[in-house]
Amino acid sequence: MRPAWTRVKPACGEMPQREGAATRQIDPTRMTIATLSSAAPAGRSNRPVVAWLFVCCAMIFAMVVIGGITRLTESGLSITEWRPVTGAIPPLSEEAWQAEFARYRQIPQYQQVNAGMTLAEFKAIFWWEYIHRLWGRLIGVAFALPLAWFWITGRIRGRIARQLAGIFVLGAIQGAIGWWMVASGLADRVSVSPYRLATHLVLALVIYAWTLWAALDLLRGAARPADAGAGPLGFLALVFVTIVSGAFVAGNRAGLTYNTFPLMDGRLVPEFYVDPALGSLMQSIFEGVAAVQFNHRVLAIAVVVSALALWLGRRRSAPAGLARAALAAVPIAACAQLALGIATLLLVVPIALGAAHQAGAVLVLTAATLAAHALAAANGARR
Ligand code: HEM
After folding, report:
1. Backbone angles phi, psi at 40, to 5 degrees
2. Does the Cβ of 342 fall within 6 Å of ligand 1?
3. Which residues contact 216 (CB under 8 A, 6 or more apart)?
């Protein structure tokens, strides 16, 4: 007769074990939330939860691109107030439009850059910012309601529920950071602070990567990032640093100068790396057009070289299937992003290419996250 404890349904956090079974063979196709994270009663499929998380990833991807277009069309400062709920209703009367436009005419960007702008021109920049904020609200709702439902119905519990709650909190913070960024451009400046732009972009991509990792945990089995190893994790960190440097290129409008490649005004290292107008090396690194663009170029090339090294180094030892496919996608995405970046620079940042380059950065991050998760899962299973 099997001992008593094997007949009892496993409590939260325990993996069911049969007597004498050293390790339990996990069949990913029959994976349920219960066996993954003891989130729900055993046997209940987690497909709806996985599908929901992938939809959220797609919405965040779209949000990053909408954000890029909003910035590239200089629309980000057109709405000068933050009304998280009632702001979802756009101006519905001529009077309301005039009031909205009047508020915009108070800020330096209108007075110094767009003086004389017509209401029709104002509406063009208003709608991009409005769509950006509305899509942000939609992501919030698309995340919060299913999260509550899956939690109430017991589909998610324990570690995965806490992770998803953490992602939701970051999402709420992202909304506040978005306003904090806009607020930096409403007085004294005609554009937002590059530091706050970088913060806003990086938090968006942290939320994206974490949501993707949680979805992969549910789909393929929980993987600890540390199990991915120094190579894949180091590459992921390098991609994030390059994305931050890209935000400083964008935030300082550094893509509008030095529109040659590989040289910058005939030199490999630009003459004014330390910007005489800024005076200090540190300030030049974050606000100097030459240094900001040069750093981005160097980091971008480091991304491509290390993407190739990662693939060449791991392609044979990685298990067949997603791990190998994700590893192969890493250098492909990195090379495509390099080409997009060079084209964006040579053509002086046309809106469509700038937005494509922003989307390309998310694709590089996606491939890097998929590869890290697949390798972590494989290494974790071997431990
Ligand atoms: C391969 C890795 C690369 C990554 C991950 C990357 C990432 C990014 C990101 C995320 C931005 C936009 C930031 C924002 O809009 O807030 C950006 C902007 C930019 N990048 Fe890259 N980039 C890469 C390669 C390159 C290369 C090779 C070049 C050119 C030599 C380049 C030139 C630019 C320019 C000119 C901008 C500013 C565009 C604008 O104002 O919207 N990038 N990059």
Report:
1. -150, 165
2. yes
3. 223, 369, 370, 373, 377
Does residue 197 line the site of ligand 1, with CB under 6 A?
yes
**Would the pLDDT of 84 be above 90?**
yes
Q: Are 21 and 172 in contact (CB under 8 A)?
A: no
Residue owning the nearest CA to atom 43 of ligand 1: 246
Q: Where are the alpha helices (DSSP H) in 114-193?
A: 119-152, 158-183
Task: Take atom 10 of ligand 1 and give the residue whose Cα is closest.
Answer: 243
Task: Specify the DSSP class assigned to residue 266.
Answer: T
Grouping H, G, I as helix, E, B as strand and the rest as coil, residue 67 is helix
How is residue 142 written in tokens? Answer: 């698309």
pLDDT tens-place string over residues 261-302: 999 999 999 999 999 898 899 999 999 999 999 999 999 999
Q: Quick count: other Cβ atoms within 10 Å of Cβ 108?
A: 15
pLDDT digits (tens, 9 = 90+) for 300-357: 999 999 999 999 999 888 888 888 999 999 999 999 999 999 999 999 999 999 999 9
Element (H, E) at 44: none
**Spatial distance between the Cα atoms of 126 and 295, rounded to a whole number of angstroms:** 33
Residue given tokens 């490999």 in the structure block: 268
**Measured distance CA(142)–CA(160) in Å, rounded:** 18
Ligand 1 centroid–CA 289 distance in Å is 13
Helix, strand and coil percent figures for the chain, each rounded to 5: 70, 0, 30
Do residues 55 and 217 touch, judged by C-beta distance below 8 A? no
User: Is residue 68 in contact with ligand 1, taking CB distance under 6 Å?
Assistant: yes
Residue whose CB lies within 8 A of the most ligand 1 atoms, among 197, 249, 294, for a mutation test? 249
Q: Domain ranges in the chain? A: 41-222, 223-383
